[in-house]
């Protein structure tokens, strides 16, 4: 696969290509955090990254293509799951990781910008869904281990438990403006663990490949999970 036909950022894991990709994605993230999606401009990103405009346009093509690659990189660079030996301990570790990320001035602003863009940009929404799917799938085995230990009922939806852990923190980030601290993270983890133990997240029996409220014959709208 040559550089012209490859997907953005997938050519040669080392060397100049990797350095250029890292610089461009750093610049894109900085711009998103500072100015939002509406003002993200490939020429400005090239200037910030100190690379040629033609390189950025050739490899990423569009703003949405660049954001998609940024989200892919963020998912790849995220810390692996923590396994503490208990469901509550694992969910608390997950919640605190999310809390630290969203409370960081740069990262919090970046996520706000991407989530806002995902409400009206289908390709950005798809990239955001893929980012969360990767992160949820990384942590879901912690819930399966809790099932195996007998902490939560058989048939618990492992992915839903992880989503429920971080959901209150994203709510604070996007709507309430309440402080995002470790206490908030711990409360979210405790609530999700208690609900999981009570059987609140049974695995759905809906057809494979569909989401709640979405049939196979109905186009899936872009939305934030």
UniProtKB/TrEMBL annotation:
SUPFAM superfamilies per record: Homeodomain-like (SSF46689), Tetracyclin repressor-like, C-terminal domain (SSF48498)
A Pfam entry, by short name: TetR_C_11
Disordered: annotated segments: 195-225
Domain HTH tetR-type: 18-78
InterPro entries: Homeodomain-like_sf, HTH-type_TetR-like_transc_reg, HTH_TetR, Tet_transcr_reg_TetR-rel_C_sf, TetR_C
Source organism, top-level taxon: Bacteria
Keywords: DNA-binding, Transcription, Transcription regulation
Coiled coil: none
PROSITE patterns according to UniProt: HTH_TETR_2
Name listed for the protein in its UniProt record: TetR/AcrR family transcriptional regulator
């Amino acid at each position: 696969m040559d550089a012209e036909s490859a997907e953005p950022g997938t050519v040669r894991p080392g060397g100049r290509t990797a350095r250029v990709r890292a610089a461009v994605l750093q610049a894109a993230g900085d711009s998103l955090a500072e100015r939002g999606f509406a003002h993200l401009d490939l020429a400005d990103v090239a200037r910030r990254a100190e690379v040629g405009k033609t390189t950025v346009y050739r490899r990423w093509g569009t703003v949405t293509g660049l954001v998609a690659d940024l989200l892919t990189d963020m998912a790849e660079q995220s810390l692996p799951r923590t396994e503490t030996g208990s469901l509550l301990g694992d969910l608390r570790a997950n919640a605190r990781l999310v809390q630290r990320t969203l409370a960081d001035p740069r990262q919090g602003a970046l996520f706000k910008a991407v989530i806002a863009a995902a409400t009206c940009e289908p390709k950005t929404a798809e990239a955001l869904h893929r980012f969360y799917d990767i992160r949820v799938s990384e942590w879901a085995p912690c819930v399966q281990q809790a099932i195996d230990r007998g902490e939560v009922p058989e048939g618990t939806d492992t992915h839903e438990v992880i989503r429920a852990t971080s959901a209150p923190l994203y709510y604070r980030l996007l709507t309430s403006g309440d402080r995002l601290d470790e206490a908030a993270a711990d409360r979210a983890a405790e609530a999700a663990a208690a609900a999981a133990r009570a059987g609140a997240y049974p695995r759905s029996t809906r057809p494979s490949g569909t989401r709640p409220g979405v049939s196979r014959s109905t186009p899936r709208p872009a939305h934030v999970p």
